[in-house]
Amino acid sequence: MKKIICVGLMLILCMSMLTGCSKAKTDVTESTVFVEKKGQIVSVDVEELDKEYYDAAELEEYITEHVADYTTENGETVTKENFLVEEGIAKLEMKYASYEDYSNFNGIEFYEGTVLEAQAEGYDFDTEFYALAEESDEAAGTKQKAGKTDVLADDESKVVIIRANVAVQVKGKILYVSAEDTEVIDKKTVRITGEGANEEAALTYIIYK
């Protein structure tokens, strides 16, 4: 009996720890892609549910089946970390082993690597850019126009390239961001503000160190 009680307490403790670990992600109020270290991607999709058309249990079942189908073909590279529905708002936290898994699973154009590697993959960086001002006083997080030559000067800088209307947070300090449909939230986070479906969104470049 004591052993059963101990196991039960351990399970409760582990669940609490898992909830605590994911809480920082599910606290977001808008759909956000987190570019983690070592190429791992975490996404939190935030959607308002229309009770007339959506059932939370059915939605979670669909997500679970979609993950199972993907991992059967591609290995354990995608996991459902958390699914919450509160006051009609659904939040789904997913973890991906690589940017390719995020792209393939969601059908969204996405790339993560160095500036040099991105050019080798065919990305031409042929768009207008802003440089982020240094973090100081009122200038923090503001944007200043920058040329393509400046953006490509350090080809070892990291870059995230995405075609989706979401917020993107990187593990580093953003140096440049493409100008179209972007709003700088802070030195690590950019909100992509285009309208319409993701496939209609502008291709956004986020260069960081």
Quick synopsis:
The protein has 209 residues and is of the alpha+beta class. It is built from five helices and 13 strands. Mean pLDDT is 85; it is low at 1-22.
Describe this structure in words.
This protein has 209 residues and is an alpha+beta fold. The protein has one domain. It has 5 helices and 13 strands. The strands form 2 sheets. A 7-stranded mixed sheet has the order 3-4-2-1-9-12-11, sandwiched between helices. It has a 6-stranded antiparallel sheet with strand order 5-8-13-10-6-7. The longest helix has 25 residues. The chain is globular, with a radius of gyration of 19 Å.
List the defining traits of the structure above:
alpha+beta; 209 residues; 6-stranded antiparallel beta sheet; 5 helices; disordered N terminus; 7-stranded mixed beta sheet
Rg computed from alpha carbons, rounded to a whole number of angstroms: 19 Å
Count of separate DSSP helical elements: 5
Main sheet overview: 7 strands, mixed
Task: State the shape.
Answer: globular
Which residues form runs of ≥5 with pLDDT under 50? 1-22
How much helix, percentage-wise, in residues? 25-40%
Question: For the terminal residues, how far apart are their CA atoms?
Answer: 54 Å
